[in-house]
Amino acid sequence: MMGFRRLFAAGATAIAIAVAGMLVQPVAVAADVIVVPPGNQFKKQPRIYSGSRALTMMGGGTFKTKYQKVYRLLASDPNLIARIKKVSALYGIDPIHVIGAIVGEHTYNIDTYDTLQTYYVKAMQYVSNDSLVFANRGDTAAELFARPQFAKCNQYKMNYEVWDCRQTTWENVFMGRFVDGKKYPRDRLHRVYFGPAFAGQTFGFGQLSPVAALAVTDIVHAKSGLPLLTIDNAPEVYQNIMNPETSLHYVAANIRVSIDLYKSIAGFDISQNPGITATLYNLGNAATRARILRAENQKRAKAGKPPMYPQENFYGWFVNDKEAELRKLL
């Protein structure tokens, strides 16, 4: 079980799953879908990712103080809560999922600014910055994805799955390896090709990476009318994920997609468990993780074993642990 925790906490491609040691058991409501109920599966929080600890120590705070800061910001801004409710309704999700993602990010990732106004100011800095491009040492993201290793990703009709495939291909083929005579950095795709050194890797109130926004831009465009983002216009991508008015749409859309993929691919309804959706928001690649879980359960079914279930990581565990308190914001 500890091995699964480490995989999930580190953001590995393999899906973390569990059967034993759970506090609650999912209940089946249909032959092909299992509902994962609210609450944590583990009595204690899984090991916190070392990067989160280092980031918090460098900022001179603690997880507790960072949580209190983001909670105060949410509690002090009824207009923001109203927008979260409105956007959540547009994408057909319980707003606790959006609250959970935001709180998790600002507790274990970058600390919040004191007011939303700072985010608006930051967003405007990207509008006219034509020097921003998605590239690595002169090699653009478009040129990277044109390589034959990524050709298989074009089979997917869903934009999110195309990007999921690109990230998985990057991790399995390029990351930290020599390919066609070139050595690629041993780091995540969004950090290598989609993160200007001066700006970090995730942005805005939802701490979104450009990849996360690009993966759901078609859904956001269809639901909200916001422009379709492309890898050829980096300033527009950064502006949209930095602006609190628009970034909430990309947060909600990513959660919506995770819920849909886990139901359609893996046969689990995770819509009642904000800790699971927060975990997937934290780790990404929901389609790949759902397929790994499905494949594992197919093997278990043939062997006459019970199915394995999605598991929250340290980030999702925290969200579930604080769910009652977070619901007071709504």
Number of strands: 9
**What is the ordering of alpha helices and beta strands?**
HEEEHHHHHEEHHEEHHHHHEHHEHH
- The Cα radius of gyration reads 19 Å
Helical content (DSSP H or I, runs of 4+): 40-55%
The helix/strand class is mainly alpha
| Average pLDDT score | 83
Order the strands across the largest sheet as they lie in space. Answer: 2-3-8
Number of spatially distinct domains: 1
Commentary on this structure:
There is one protein chain. The protein has 330 residues and is mainly alpha-helical. The protein has one domain (2-42, 118-313). The protein contains 17 helices and 9 strands. The strands form 4 sheets. A 3-stranded mixed β-sheet has the order 2-3-8. The chain has a two-stranded antiparallel ribbon with strand order 1-9. The protein has a two-stranded antiparallel sheet with strand order 4-5. A hairpin with a 2-residue loop joins β2 (27-30) and β3 (33-35). α5 crosses α16 (314-321). The chain is globular, with a radius of gyration of 19 Å.
